[in-house]
Amino acid sequence: MSRKTADVIVIGGGIIGAATGYYLARQKLKVIILEKDFPCAGSTGRCIGGIRAQFSHDLTIRVMLLSIKLFQSLSDELGEDIEWYAGGYLFLAFDEARKEAFLQAIDIQRKYGLNVQFISADDCRQIVPDLNTEGLLGGAWCPTDGQANPFNVTFGYLCGLKQQGSQVLINHQVVKIKVIKNRVVSVVTANGDEFFAPVVLNAAGPWAAEVAKFVGIDLPVQPDRHEALVTEGIERCLEPMLVDYRSDGCYFVQHYKTGHFLGCYTPVPIIPGYRLDASDEFITEMPRRMSRIMPKLTTVKVLRQWAGSYEMSPDGNPICGTTPINGFYVSAGMSGHGFMFGPALGKLMAELIITGKSTIDLTEFRFGRTFAKAEIMK
Amino acid sequence: MGDHHSIRKQKKTGSIKNKRAIVCRCEEITEEEIRNAIRTGYHSLEEIKRVLRPGMGHCGGKGCLQIIANLIQEETHISVAKQKFPKSRPPIKPIPIGILGSYRR
Predict the structure, then answer these.
(1) d(CA A369, CA A363)
(2) A375: pLDDT confidence band, cut at 50, 70 and 90?
(3) How far is CA A226 from CA A25, A198, A229, A270, B86, in A?
(4) Is residue A45 within 8 angstroms of chain B, CB to CB?
(5) Residue/partner pairs of A206-214 with CB below 8 Å, 24 or more apart
(6) Cys-Cys crosslink for A260: which of A5, A171, A255, B70, Cβ 3.0 to 4.6 Å?
(7) Nearest to B101 among A151, A231, A287 (CB)
């Protein structure tokens, strides 16, 4: 049993905790990250690494433009190749309603200077020569979206944070948060250690609601089960992330260096809960869906399948900022976009914690908001 | 198997006798790289897997994870028995997308 102090305690060693911790440490704050398992063990290490600014919500687009800017220079900044590659994102429209939704989103995205357009099925095939365009009306195409490696980004941020003298403690599960006179005082872990800090950030991803309960707050974040797979590496034949939003669609990308294909789909209906076993349904259904869009893939071998949690908020947007408990902050409810939001929300949350406001106002993502308009480009 | 044997017998010292011995054949990761990762402070198979990618290739760690566990034991005195092994992921062998997908038609 030991007693330690810090300026900020971050609960969660995924991308959100790592990035926020890094930007705080860079401003000379002493940070302790408490991770219950190991870095990336939750949602971050299970995502397929897509990064895009093609969203339908103004604030999300602005946050992602900042994130992409940070991703572009992150390898140099962290001294770790994060495998950022701007291969673009191509969202496929197989019906008029989807096309209309994309066109509306493009209008919003262009307000912020995003280079995005709706292109014909033939133009889609120019970008992806092996694409099956049967029934395809066209696609929303943004060449500045891309991919990066979630492990490298997270471990890179954590190394950077440690170089600043801050700490990352793995196998430290938080079991209690002490609050006195409505202000956080300390965090207790399962091994009996107690960590004192005036600021505690809840970056616990799919477990964020459980962590919030320690201070008596109801945080509307719940895990949804998703599955993913990776194939062997083959010669490059797919530049962008391909997104097929049909109810039996899927999304996948080819790693720009290794040639592996990484893909997943959102089950309909969604599957709430923490179950992370691999299903027979996914390992047969996902290959069917992938080879329908790119018939060339039938000979490519699947190496592994796994499951992970989307940590869903009611409107599909993050919940970031202060809470009714003084000193207790939250950055959770990433709804499947935590990895791509990570750098920007990390930087903005660090600003918010240090100065009380952030260069991009996150008020719309505040805790306690009413959840109305849903993100259409989920 | 000769290489594996010599890795196990190595003492915990600063020098690495067999620097270029391949520990993970699928991802081509050497003993030196693994030992350096352990000495950097990554004392678990799960972390080393994510930092260097051993066990993420074709065989899924069947060849290398036990060797890495031994290296961790040598470098840190955390016994192999106390180490948590990463979950093995299906399929056991790589299978073509066309064959897997045919089960749904």
Answers:
(1) 9
(2) confident
(3) 33, 36, 11, 8, 19
(4) yes
(5) A206/A42, A206/A43, A206/A274, A206/A309, A206/A310, A206/A311, A207/A12, A207/A36, A207/A42, A208/A12, A208/A311, A208/A330, A208/A332, A208/A333, A211/A11, A211/A12, A211/A174, A211/A177, A212/A323, A212/A330, A214/A174, A214/A175, A214/A176, A214/A177
(6) A255
(7) A287
> Which two structure tokens, joined as six digits, stand for A189?
């872990």
Is the bond preceding B54 in cis, omega lying within 30 degrees of 0?
no
Q: Is A227 helix (H, G, I), strand (E, B) or coil?
A: strand
* Cβ-proximal residues to B26 (8 Å cutoff; 6+ apart), any chain: B56, B57, B58, B59, B63, B64
Nearest to A306 among B89, B96, B97 (CB): B89
Pairing verdict, β A89-93 and A241-244? parallel
Question: B50, B92, B93: best mutation site toward chain A, by most A Cβ within 10 Å?
Answer: B50
Residues A251/A263, Cβ–Cβ less than 8 Å: yes
CA-closest candidate to residue A325, choices A219, A252, A222: A219
Digit-coded pLDDT (tens) for B77-94: 999 999 999 999 999 999
Q: Is the pLDDT of residue B18 over 90?
A: no
Higher pLDDT, residue B10 or A267: A267
Cβ-defined contact of A151 to B51 (cutoff 8 Å): yes
Query: pLDDT at residue B1 above 50?
Result: no
CB-based contacts of A34, cutoff 8 Å, min separation 6: A9, A10, A11, A12, A13, A169, A172, A173, A174, A187, A189, A195
Q: Is the peptide bond before A223 cis (omega within 30 degrees of 0)?
A: no
Instruction: Determine the Cα–Cα distance for residues A311 and A331; give it in Å rounded to an integer.
Output: 11
